[in-house]
From TrEMBL, chain A:
Residues spanning the membrane: 21-42, 62-87, 114-137, 162-180
Record-linked InterPro entries: DUF2975
Domain of life of the native organism: Bacteria
Keyword vocabulary terms for this entry: Membrane, Transmembrane, Transmembrane helix
Record's protein name: DUF2975 domain-containing protein
Automatic annotation (TrEMBL), chain B:
InterPro entries: Cro/C1-type_HTH, Lambda_DNA-bd_dom_sf
Origin: domain of life: Bacteria
PANTHER family (UniProt xref): DNA-BINDING PROTEIN, DNA-BINDING PROTEIN-RELATED
GO MF, any single term: DNA binding
Name of the protein: Transcriptional regulator
Pfam assignment, any one: HTH_26
Species the sequence originates in: Winogradskyella jejuensis
Sequence ranges assigned to domain HTH cro/C1-type in this UniProt record: 13-62
């Protein structure tokens, strides 16, 4: 049974508002963080007092490999903004009930692919990092060999629910995109049936 | 396409215009044009029946199979 028109418009309106809120919220957050980082490098004394504690983070980055995880997370965050932008672009045709338009299919596919890339990319880097760091800790800090048990625990704890959830959502978007593509072909066939 | 639509020929034999036929069978001229140009993916039995009735012909007069 089709969703009632009124309910559908309310649902899609709410979805549009939430996606806009998320997208512009992340843009505002990125600008604020970027400004803070700039301030840290240009004039550290002008950073507001409440954020000055965060400058300690940079003191601990003594080696290039310490940057891998923050850099991957930053890249993941940027890709996440881009994927939300593609979802945002899907909403307008959906509001006009153009479910099978090329725009919807293409943007769902792009968004889904990005979600999968983010989930796998950041997840893989976290697992590798957890494995490497647990080895370092075992050899250089703890100084003893506790077997592979603690490594397995470190790797297992690095797999976050968020990554798994993102992967599922990404795959769902790819499936939806494929379903809409099939729907578009069926609609085209129906339109060309005289 | 291996199915050829000979609607133009039958229409000219009956001295009937597309617009007239479209009005009789109850479809738009645009759809009739799609049918005539061979761009249509399928034709409903009800449409075929209406065309045959309006033009007093058989389905084989309108549709022809051509081997590729």
């Amino acid at each position: 049974m089709l969703l009632k028109n009124n309910n559908f418009m309310k649902t899609i309106g709410l979805l549009k508002n939430l996606i806009n809120l998320l997208f512009w919220g992340m843009i505002a957050f990125s600008i604020a963080v970027f400004a803070l980082i700039l301030m840290f490098f240009i004039s550290p004394e002008s950073i507001p007092l409440m954020f000055q504690g965060y400058t300690m983070m940079f003191d601990s980055f003594y080696s290039w490999n310490i940057w891998i995880v923050p850099f991957t997370n930053l890249l993941g965050f940027i890709l996440f903004i881009v994927s939300i932008y593609y979802l945002k672009k899907c909403i307008e045709p959906l509001q006009k009930r153009q479910f099978y338009s090329e725009d919807v299919i293409r943007n769902l596919k792009k968004s889904g692919r990005l979600f999968v890339i983010i989930a796998l990319g950041t997840g893989l880097i976290r697992i590798i990092t957890a494995f490497v760091f647990s080895t370092y800790a075992n050899v250089s800090v703890i100084g003893g060999n506790f077997g592979t048990g603690h490594q397995s625990a470190a790797v297992a704890s690095s797999i976050e629910n968020f990554n798994l959830f993102l992967l599922i959502i990404g795959l769902f978007l790819l499936v939806f995109s494929n379903a809409f593509e099939n729907g578009r072909l069926l609609k085209q066939e129906n339109d060309l049936t005289i | 396409m291996s199915i050829k639509v000979n609607l133009d020929i039958v229409l000219s034999e009956r001295n009937m215009k597309s617009k007239e036929l479209a009005e009789i069978i109850g479809i738009t001229e645009a759809n009739l044009s799609i049918l005539k140009s061979g761009k249509a993916k399928a034709i409903r039995f009800s449409t075929l029946e209406a065309i045959c009735k309006a033009l007093d012909c058989q389905p084989s007069d309108i549709l022809e199979y051509i081997e590729d």
